[in-house]
Amino acid sequence: MKAFVTGASGFVGSHVCSALRADGAEVRCLVRESSPRTNLEGLDDAELVVGDLRDAESVARGVAGCDTVFHCAADYRLYVPDPDAMYASNVEGTRIVLAAALEAGVERVVYTSSVGALGLHPDGTPADETTAVSLDDMLGHYKRSKYLAERVAEEWAERGLAVVIVNPSTPIGDGDVKPTATGRVILDFLNRKTPAFVDTGLNWIDVRDVAAGHLLAAERGRPGEKYILGHRNLSLQQIFEMLARITGLSAPRIRLPHWVPLTFAALDTGWARLSGGEPRVPLDAVRLSRYKMYFDASKAVRELGLPQTPIEEALTRAVEWFWDNGYAARVDSR
């Protein structure tokens, strides 16, 4: 296999690249000039194409001669001062990548969507790929942009492109350089910046299993279908209790009513818009936390053979990676 990977320097994309190389594939990566290369340091033989999702010429150069495309890149932020830039990357960028893939005669495309683009059940029971959803259900620009990008992927599937959609839930593990919003939850815990929590929950999965799921989708996924790459539904309180067992640090015990962080986030986000800075607590993040985003990944387990590594292992690797890379001071109280 010769694979072209967008978002190769990111959390999920870099793990996809590592899994491809371990599988013996040739890898070509699309990276922006400004993208950090930290997660690519172990991929010395990977070919780098410097470009941008919004630049059709650089995307076409990257796709040329490849038989498989993994479109992992996305603008993932819960606060955006300029939403148009996010839609340009996530929606129009997807259109550019898929058009280039069809033009180049690529055999298979795996498009990385998100469970954020899927529907939820009001009672919090796990949703799946068939749960009803509409654009009006999407809260915030990130979710709206990913929902619209999924529709683009479906359009190109109808045109004959063999595109498989994967919807990762909440990946955790090593190599979260930025870190992501989820990595920030772990990092804040390690840095004792989490005095309290809210009653919310997510579906969690080892990032290495997410990467494996991408390769399995390329091999076994049905074109036009989507697959939730997830594992275990856990509340935020349960995650903190796991982190406490792993690190020896104390888990927060105070559960806040949602109106408290909602008020703070509204003020914090409002000030960020006035000052041009970044909010510490984005309003969309708190609004999303009012819902338990629980999902059923049994379709991917059944049809793709998606691995299900224990969440404790992924959390341990995340903690060790943050400690080893100086994001937080290591503790010896375990």
What is the architecture of the domain at 2-174 and 204-233 and 293-310 at the second tier of CATH?
Answer: 3-Layer(aba) Sandwich
The strand order across the widest sheet is 3-2-1-4-5-6-10
* Helix coverage percent: 40-55%
Q: Which class of the domain at 2-174 and 204-233 and 293-310 in CATH terms? A: Alpha Beta
Q: Provide the low-confidence segments as ranges.
A: none
**H/E topology pattern:** EHEEHEHEHEEHEEHEEHEHHEHH
Secondary structure class reads alpha/beta
Number of continuous helical runs: 11
CATH 4th-level superfamily of the domain at 2-174 and 204-233 and 293-310: NAD(P)-binding Rossmann-like Domain
Largest sheet: 7 strands, parallel
Distance between the termini: 44 Å
**Strand share of the residues?**
15-25%
Taking all Cα atoms into account, the compactness measure Rg is: 19 Å
How many beta-strand elements? 13
Kindly report the average pLDDT value. Answer: 91
What is the CATH T-level topology of the domain at 2-174 and 204-233 and 293-310?
Rossmann fold
Shape: globular
Descriptive account of the structure:
This protein has helices spanning 11-22, 56-63, 83-104, 141-158, 181-190, 207-220, 236-247, 259-275, 283-288, 298-304, 311-324; strands at 2-6, 26-31, 47-50, 68-71, 108-112, 163-168, 170-172, 196-197, 201-206, 226-229, 232-235, 254-255, 292-293. The protein is an alpha/beta fold. The chain has a domain at 2-174 and 204-233 and 293-310: Rossmann fold (3-Layer(aba) Sandwich). It has a 7-stranded parallel sheet, sandwiched between helices. Helix 2 (56-63) runs parallel beside helix 3 and helix 5 packs across helix 11 (311-324). It is globular, with a radius of gyration of 19 Å. The mean pLDDT is 91.
